[in-house]
């Protein structure tokens, strides 16, 4: 892994970030020879599924979904 002193990193920050982006290789930033940070490329972004199907597998059925929601006698009252 390539190392760079923190003072040089400060002066060439954008170039170092561009190098990590292009090569995909991490760079270790050191201060007085001791590591203080590691610059690594981002991991591959997760594919988004879009809004259609985005909640697939998240619902849970609770109770009876086939029977009437209310008592059948209540329906007779509502019809009149």
Could you walk me through the main structural features you see in this protein, from its secondary elements to its overall organization?
The chain has 80 residues and is of the alpha+beta class. The chain has a domain at 1-43: YefM-like domain (YefM-like fold, 3-Layer(aba) Sandwich). It contains 3 helices and 3 strands, in the order E-H-H-E-E-H. Strands 1-2-3 form a 3-stranded mixed sheet. It is rod-shaped, with a radius of gyration of 30 Å. The model has no long low-confidence stretch (mean pLDDT 87).
**Could you name the ranges where pLDDT drops below 50 across 5 or more consecutive residues?**
none
| Structural class category | alpha+beta
Taking Cα atoms only, what radius of gyration do you get, to the nearest Å? 30 Å
Order of helices and strands: EHHEEH
- Under CATH, the topology of the domain at 1-43 can be stated as YefM-like fold
CATH architectural category of the domain at 1-43? 3-Layer(aba) Sandwich
Share of helical residues: 25-40%
For the record, what CATH class of the domain at 1-43 applies? Alpha Beta
| CA-based shape | rod-shaped
Major sheet: order of its strands?
Answer: 1-2-3
Largest sheet, described in full? 3 strands, mixed
Distance between the termini: 81 Å
- Please, how many helices? 3
Q: Please tally the β strands and state the result.
A: 3
Strand content: 15-25%
The H-level CATH homologous superfamily of the domain at 1-43, spelled out, is: YefM-like domain
């Amino acid at each position: 892994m390539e190392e760079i002193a923190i003072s040089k990193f400060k002066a060439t920050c954008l170039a170092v970030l561009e190098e990590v982006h292009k090569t995909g290789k991490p760079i270790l930033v050191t201060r007085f020879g001791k590591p203080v940070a590691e610059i690594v490329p981002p991991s591959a972004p997760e594919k988004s599924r879009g809004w259609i199907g985005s909640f697939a597998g998240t619902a849970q059925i609770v109770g009876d979904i086939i029977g009437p929601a209310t008592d059948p006698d209540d329906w007779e009252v509502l019809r009149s």
